[in-house]
Amino acid sequence: MKAYHIHVEGIVQGVGFRPFVYRIAHEHDLRGYVKNLGDAGVEIVVEGKEKNIRAFLRDLREKAPPLARVEKINVKEIPIQGFDRFYIEKSSTGGGSGDSIIPPDVSICEDCLRELFDPRDKRYMYPFIVCTNCGPRFTIIAELPYDRVNTTMREFDMCDYCESEYKDPLNRRYHAEPVCCPVCGPGYRLYTNDGMELTGDPLKRTAELIDKGYIIAIKG
After folding, report:
1. Which residues pair with residue 2 across a beta bridge?
2. Tell me, what CATH number does 67's domain have?
3. Which intervals hold domain Acylphosphatase-like (predicted)?
4. pLDDT tens, residue by residue, 81-129
5. What's the whole-model pTM score?
6. Which are the catalytic amino acids?
7. Does a structural domain hold residue 157?
């Protein structure tokens, strides 16, 4: 049995990196934790068989999420602490060195696009649909580490459905910080410039007004 402390730098917050680490740690039968480190990247502690840890490190470098960019991995052997599982630890707000990069907002992914236009889906035609592979990052974050409480989404408590996705390691919304739906997420309305709310579907009405030459302003 071996134990290692791993420090990862680059674009590793807000891109599904911790859920990715969680999954590959379980695939390689490792114990320990992963957590965000303020503005200093991601910290990982793993315990297990040497060959499993080597395979884990290989996957860490070669199979990172599509939005992640791993720039540096520092590995140091440490004493075994005797973890009984692998988990996502609460983020740390201290110890920052400025080495973590806030990712940009990312356009909708194919999976979310398919759900968006599926009448059977809970988020059918909901414009704020997101997952770990797409959605806002830079424009909603107030400070690092990238956790929901540090974004503008802190004002919106997740409903039971969204929370179940957020906590499911096999779901692509696992620890997707902006996850929401029409029940618990932001809404939207359409007003005239003198403050009168227009009836009907705001998105369809907006498209109709643009077609007629009107100018639409968006206010959050």
Report:
1. 48
2. 3.30.70.100
3. 3-90
4. 999 999 999 888 765 555 567 889 999 999 999 999 999 999 999 999 9
5. 0.77
6. 18, 36
7. no
